[in-house]
Amino acid sequence: MEAEADEMDGLASVLERHFELAVLGAEIQCGDQQVLSIKSEMNLGVLDWLKNSEEYAYDLLLDVTAVDYGRENKFQVVYQLWSIQKKRLLRIKCPLAEEKLEIDSVTSLWGSANWLEREVFDLFGVQFVGHPDLRRILMPKNYSEGHPLRKDFPLRGRYSREKQTEIALDQSYEDYYRPEQLRGVDD
Amino acid sequence: MGIEQTNPRDLPVTSNADTSLTFLTTKVDFVVNWARRNSLWPMPFGTACCAIEMMASAASNFDLARFGMERMSFSPRQADVLICAGRVPYKLAPVLRRTWDQMMQPKWVISMGACASSGGVFDTYSMVQGIDTIVPVDVYVPGCPPRPEGLIYGLMMIQEKIRNESLADHDNLRREDPEGAGKPKADAEEVRALTGAFGNSTQQDKLSTLAQTARPGRFKDELE
Q: Cβ of B111 under 8 Å from any chain A Cβ?
C-alpha cells in the first residue's frame, strides 16, 4: 500500500514535469489500483508518453469507457492501461467539460481503441476527435433517441413502445452488411 | 432363418373382394390436420437461456422426438413452427420478422419464456416488449426459463389448436398482416381497462408499482 502510494506520487510528479498542469489528482483505490486524473485536452500526449516511456511502458490498452456521475463535470472518459513488461495497472481519468463533450481519439496509439471509443460514443455521446470511423456500434443504426447510458436518459427510452417498434422494423440490411455479404439473400 | 420364398399359390385367396381394405371415408379437415399436427418441424430462434432449455427438450432425457417430429429445421423455409426462445432486442426485431416472413404457410409461433412473451424483467429502452408486437403468436409458454415439459406442453397445445382448425376458415387462419406488426390488437380503451394501474408494454405511461407516484415523464414521439 505504502509502496504503491509512493510510486503513484512519483508518477504524478514525473508527469507534472513533462506536462505542465496536466495532473488534476492522484489516488490509490481498492488497495492497489493507481488512478490518475488528467486534463482531457492533454490525454493524447500523456498516454503517448506513458506508452512509450521506457520506465513505465504502459503498452496495453485494456479498456476505454466513460462514467456519468450525474453532477457537475459529470462525464469522465476512463482509460485502463496495463504494462506487460512491468506488470502494472494504471487508470487514467479525463473529466470532460459539460458544454464540450470532446476528447482526442487514441486510435493512433492503440488500434484496439477503435471499437471501444465507438461504444463510448454510442452510449454516452462523447465525440472522439480524429477517430477514423465514429458511428454507433451497439444500438441500431437508425436509433434516434440519444445516448442510453447517460443518467438523464429515461430507462424505457424516449419514444413510445409503438414508435420504437416501428423504427426497429424500419432497419434495413444494408445498414449492417456490405453488398458482397448480402449476395444471394434475396434470390 | 433366411429369406423364405413365398409361393403365390400359398397365399390365402379371398373370394370376396369387399373384405380387403382399399379405401376409407373421412373428413378432409381430419386428414389434413392429422398430417399437419404430427409433422411440425420447429424453427429454433434461440437468443438466450430459454434456448438451453429448448436444447434440453430436444435431447434424450425429454426427447422431443417422441412425436416423431424431432427434425429441428434450421432453415425457416422448411419449418412449420417458430419457437422464439429468449429475449429479443429491437435491433433483432426485423430479423425475427423476416424469419417469420420466410416461413411458408401453414405456420405457427411459440413464444417461449417471459422475455419473449412480455419483455420479462427487461423493461428497458432496447428490448422488444413481447414478440407479439413483431409476429403473431399462437402459444405463450410462461417461465424463466420454462422447463422442457413446459415447451413440450406448448407444442401439444399447438397440436390441439391444429386439430380444431378447418380448411373452411383458411382465409382467416392463414392471413398475414404486415401492417399490423407493432400495433396492439385491442383498441386503446380495452388495453387500458385490462391493464389498470400497472401500465403495459405498448402504453407505458404508468409505473409498474402499487406505490402512488407521480406520472413519470414520457417524452413525446418527436424530439424537439
A: no
Q: Is residue B204 part of a domain?
A: no
Which value does ipTM take for this structure?
0.81
Residue of B90, B121, B204 for testing the chain A interface, max A β-carbons within 10 Å: B90
| Residue-range definition of the domain harbouring residue B107 | 28-196
* CATH number of the domain bearing residue B122: 3.40.50.12280
CA atoms of B43 and B40, how far apart (whole Å): 9
Which residue ranges form the domains of chain A, and what is each CATH number? 2-158 (3.30.460.80)
Under 8 Å between Cβ of A113 and A88: no
Mean pLDDT of A130-153: 88
pLDDT tens digits, one per residue of B59-115: 888 888 888 777 888 889 999 999 999 999 999 988 898 888 888 888 899 999 999
Rounded CA-CA distance A76/A107 in Å is: 18
Domain-located, residue B133:
yes
Report the C-alpha gap between B147 and B107 in whole angstroms. Answer: 24
Of B90, B124, B223, the CB nearest to A155: B124
Q: Spell out which residues of chain B touch residue A146, defining contact as CB-CB under 8 Å.
A: 223
pTM: 0.77
Residue B105: is it exposed, middle or buried by C-beta count within 10 angstroms (0-12/13-18/19+)? exposed
Residues in chain B within 8 Å Cβ distance of A148: 125-126
Q: How many CB pairs under 8 A join A and B?
A: 72
> Is position B216 within any domain?
no
**Chain A residues within an 8 Å CB radius of B202:** 160-162
Model pLDDT for residues B149-165, shown as the tens digit of each residue: 999 999 999 999 898 88
B201 in contact with A, Cβ within 8 Å? yes
Using a CB-CB distance cutoff of 8 angstroms, which residues of chain A are in contact with residue B129?
161
| First-residue to last-residue Cα distance in chain B | 88
